[in-house]
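Tutorial handout. Part one gives the primary structure; part two gives the three-dimensional structure as tokens.
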Amino acid sequence: MRDWLVIKVNYGRYSAYLIADLDQKELALADTDPSPTDSSPTDPSPTDSSPTDSSPTDSSPTDSSPTDIDAQEYWRRNLSLMIKLGIIWFVVSYGCGILFVDTLNHIKIGGYKLGFWFAQQGSIYTFIALIFYYTKAMERLDREFGVEESD
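Part two.
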């Protein structure tokens, strides 16, 4: 008897199975159809319900099906967006609030020094603005890749 670890990942209407053969130390990714073709109940048999029906060697992580390419591009763009927004937040909170505070303190807004304002309020406001921007950008990205959530 072989030891298997099967993890089902759902994102929107897409599903994928991460299959690990613990005996052979192999790992595979199996795509599933987002809309099942047969909705009738089936008799659970070892060939229908066990993860051994799709061998880990059937599909490898290097396969490049259109769904894999779309998922890779989606996550690449998502990570790129998060890195850019993280850099902006770092520059505003650490740079303006700590590194450039003396230079910014020469500018006054409403009687308060700008460096003090960034250290106390600016980084928080910037973080909130970045959250709203990230939400809108991810909604656009989700629509582009067809994984948006329905209301």
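Part three, for discussion. Residues 48 and 120 are 60 Å apart (CA to CA). The longest strand covers residues 4-11.
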